[in-house]
Design goal:
Helix 1 packs parallel to helix 2, helix 5 runs parallel beside helix 8 and helix 11 (303-334) packs antiparallel against helix 12. This protein has helices spanning 17-30, 49-57, 74-82, 104-113, 136-153, 169-175, 186-193, 219-234, 240-266, 271-294, 303-334, 339-361; strands spanning 7-13, 36-42, 63-67, 89-92, 119-123, 165-168, 200-204. The protein contains 12 helices and 7 strands. A 7-stranded mixed beta sheet has the order 3-2-1-4-6-5-7.
Length: 366
């Protein structure tokens, strides 16, 4: 419709090609009388989701596409989409058709009627809402995540795990420099980042059953949720990515011991040779686990990229090991009765070195 733009609907997608046209048709029916645009933010889906959205954009100027290359993550995709519009209101809705787009006009009316209201949230857990055909296991997992989220939010929000909401765009722009962009629950990020409690209203809806595509609720997504909670509670003391890198390093130390022991004691391989083999195995383990978890949003893909990354990671960690020994030896020689502190200092220096250099030269970021 003609006139000023009222609303932007941000749709973060990954492998949702089959749902693009259906979602646009549903938005068109639901948003009659509202000047709207839909912004599909696609994480370079191999199924051609971005191409499907662009095909619609050729004939419908209300459709826009942001195709992200080399990075992934639902929260960061939502942030990019929300900051890419001039509309005064912006909604986030999943591309899997499980959210009820028919309540979007009610969300907009609520924000228009109350200037003090910051956002309106679609809730499955207020009167009139529901989880549809969820099985008991998924309901239990959602309930646990909700309880954990409330501890961080400190707000009487029935559905903090909701990914379906509408907010004033100006608020998002003000919060964006401080958002963590970690994980898959942008609502949690927005509400915990705001320096003041955001005024919200919840509207009921019933979660639908997915009809096309595959669910993204895998174990890594669950891990990202826990990571986001950590970031909100402790991230200002120890950055979450460094904490993950250090945790992977600790697991790598266990892998090292698990290899060197059997080689040296059971197979009678010399200690030096056993240590070299264990170091190679531990470095390889650390590289692939960091690639899958710590740097999941920019992980390396393809045989050549993985090989080059592994070589770079091993080179960085080799220098870190030398720094570890050097710092520990220097401190021990200075004060020979503090070997434990000397060893810990060497480990700390090595961890910071490995993290900083790996972030820059292996995964290409600081």
């Amino acid at each position: 419709m003609d006139g000023p733009l009222d609303l932007a609907v941000v749709v973060p997608t990954f492998n949702e090609r089959a749902n693009v046209a259906a979602l646009v048709a549903r938005l068109d029916r639901a948003l009659g009388g509202i000047a709207w645009e839909a912004i599909f933010v696609d994480d370079d889906s191999p199924d051609g989701t971005a191409d499907a959205a662009r095909a619609l954009a050729l004939v419908d100027p209300r459709i826009r596409v942001i195709q992200r290359i080399g990075r992934r993550g639902l929260s960061s995709a939502c942030i990019e989409g929300m900051c890419a519009t001039a509309a005064p209101l912006v909604a986030v809705i999943d591309g899997d058709l499980q959210h009820d787009e028919t309540i979007l006009p009610a969300m907009a009316r609520a924000l228009a009627a109350d200037a003090a209201l910051d956002l309106v949230i679609g809730s499955r857990f207020v009167d009139g809402g529901g989880t549809g055909d969820w099985d008991k296991d998924r309901v239990a997992k959602s309930a646990l995540a909700t309880r954990l989220s409330r501890r961080v939010l400190k707000a009487d929000l029935s559905d903090p795990m909701s990914g379906f909401f509408m907010i004033r765009t100006a608020i998002v722009r003000g919060l964006t420099p401080h958002l963590s962009a970690i994980g898959f629950k942008i609502l949690l990020d927005l509400m915990t980042t705001s320096p003041r409690p955001l005024n919200f209203k919840e509207l009921p809806y019933t979660f639908r059953v997915r009809t096309a595509g595959e669910s993204k609720l895998d174990h890594v997504v669950a891990m990202e949720f826990l990571i986001a909670l950590y970031d909100r509670m402790f991230g200002r003391f120890i950055p979450v990515r460094f904490a993950m890198f250090a945790a992977v390093g600790a697991l790598g130390a266990l892998v090292h011991l698990a290899v060197v022991g059997p080689l040296h004691k059971d197979l009678a391989v010399g200690f030096i040779k056993s240590s070299i083999a264990a170091t190679a195995v531990a470095m390889t383990f650390n590289f692939f686990l960091n690639n899958a978890l710590t740097y999941r949003d920019g992980r390396l893909k393809g045989a050549r990229a993985l090989f080059d990354g592994w070589v770079s990671f091993c080179a960085v960690c080799a220098v870190g090991a030398i720094a570890n020994v050097g710092v520990a030896a220097f401190l021990y020689n200075a004060q020979s009765d503090t070997w434990i502190l000397s060893a810990l200092a060497g480990i700390a220096v090595s961890a910071v070195w490995n993290y900083a250099l790996s972030s820059r030269f292996v995964w290409g970021r600081y």
